């Protein structure tokens, strides 16, 4: 099947379309329904009648955007009408929800009269927190947006105009910097004089481009003052008429620094590119075919050609999804009355800044593992970069506050945490730990410090103030990698081949001399990053350690167990995963270390896992799992669990509820606990699940992760005398940063 056939099947599969309405409150009982509708709904109605602003408190208005279109200018399809344009508007709703957690009603209007559209949309103001105008033909779109912006007290945004302007504006800021040119000095040529071109030209002026340096061409050639005098040009085109000789696009491009294409494909050739100034910037954004092919533009000359298109199969895609979800998110969250120029500029500047930061592995993988590093082929972030939400959105919200458009204010730090929570419960939970880590950063040894991911993680740990990383590895290799990725920091490096490690060898020999290690072997082992890092932590020259990225779990765990050992109150280490669901967090143990735990091991694992949960500000409720419920099966396997439970319940150190043995559904389903086993010590579902053996634990957490849609953080090692965590082979930079944050909080507890 081709793309068209695949798309048709995608849209018609049951249920047809791409969006649905879901409830956000319980509707399981008669009382639920009486609260949702009659008679309970009268209470919020009366409150809103008394003060209309309370609609933001009692209804979904504050998170609801209307995507409004007449289908008169659908991208690549033209005037196909409102009903044929509906799949596009539904798609817009998908993007709003996927990238910024904003709900959408798409509204297709069967009218070709601008005044009728204005009056209809204005009458719907009580429904929405904002209006996104879409695919409305020029020049009517200018008037529709202007009038609605004046008339309504909620944000109105025509994405076809401003989305392209903002995203390409961010690209322009970075491209000019790479080319070593100042914005105010750029000679900019536009091909196309429609809504997006005119809006982009105006926006570039807001960024610092001189209006006198902008030359705009339509299908008849350069828009000059002479043409404006004698031809019937609309007033929007006339605004960019220049007092220069008439000519075509080729004339305009001669000597230009920047070409901005918002017209039709194939109208620019290599000779026109060669006529431009040094290190030209070419934004060929016609879709699906750009004004000049990417390969042709790049090969037209020997200097640097910075190229962007509207296509996803080439570098530097100008994609509006980088803008509108996050702009509306910021505007809605401060209840802005408009989306003004200051907010748009803030969005563009934030996007430009984000492109200069190290790119997460998850983004690199999503785009085929191609290198993504600030430079000519990476001047704007990728649409799937999750950081756009909490980089661009706060910038927009702050600009709304500073410009007077906001009706409420925000605490920026708290707001970023709220935004991260929208990306998933795991980000919310990790933010708790990372904030604790930032309050008192500790020295964390990265035992595989030569690895590219470790070096990038070290940079982020320093940049975010989470930890003071110590990289163990070849100093020259680490420096080469740092330079390769443009990481501006001066890492602490311990090179085992050149550093004086005699004291560490002495200590390793002292610890292991009666456990099969000779002096010479100690001197050799201490050159190994895992052993060296372990001794550094044991001697107090570092506070915590991460390893395992390039080793199998058992071989990575062995050195810290031999050198650091378990805590005074522990005889066993254990591995714990934190699984985050939409509205629930569960800690699973033991998933990585103890194969066949007895009652003593289960008791320790439960106690230490409960302590770990509290580091995430989660109050533990522990269930010890089995295939038996509270004695329904009596055999050695269930008896050992009951012994562990009895000891824990009698232990004064355990100040959280523990019960078992119980089946997994009993542990996590409130109705079963309360109705069938009302005697249980758990008055709410468990959030600490202790498995009876390693096999069950490993299988259980992976099934929850893959089939239950949980995000997994870990494994986190508990029971060690000093903080040590063993990464999984193939973990990404964000996983290293997260576990380093956990290690720092562990060290703070020490």
TrEMBL record:
GO terms for biological process: malate metabolic process. The keyword Metal-binding applies. InterPro entries: Aminoacid_DH-like_N_sf (IPR046346), Malate_Decarboxylase (IPR051674), Malic_N_dom (IPR012301), Malic_N_dom_sf (IPR037062), Malic_NAD-bd (IPR012302), Malic_NAD-bd_bact_type (IPR045213), ME_PTA (IPR012188), NAD(P)-bd_dom_sf (IPR036291). Coiled coil: none annotated. SUPFAM superfamilies: Aminoacid dehydrogenase-like, N-terminal domain, Isocitrate/Isopropylmalate dehydrogenase-like, NAD(P)-binding Rossmann-fold domains. Residues 161-401 form the Malic enzyme NAD-binding domain. Pfam families: malic, Malic_M, PTA_PTB. Keywords: Metal-binding, Multifunctional enzyme, Oxidoreductase. Residues 16-149 form the Malic enzyme N-terminal domain. Its EC number is 1.1.1.40. GO terms for molecular function: acyltransferase activity; malate dehydrogenase (decarboxylating) (NADP+) activity; metal ion binding; NAD binding. Its cofactor is Mn(2+); Mg(2+). The keyword S-adenosyl-L-methionine does not apply. It comes from the Archaea. In the N-terminal section; belongs to the malic enzymes family. In the C-terminal section; belongs to the phosphate acetyltransferase and butyryltransferase family. This is Bifunctional malic enzyme oxidoreductase/phosphotransacetylase. It comes from Haloarcula vallismortis ATCC 29715.
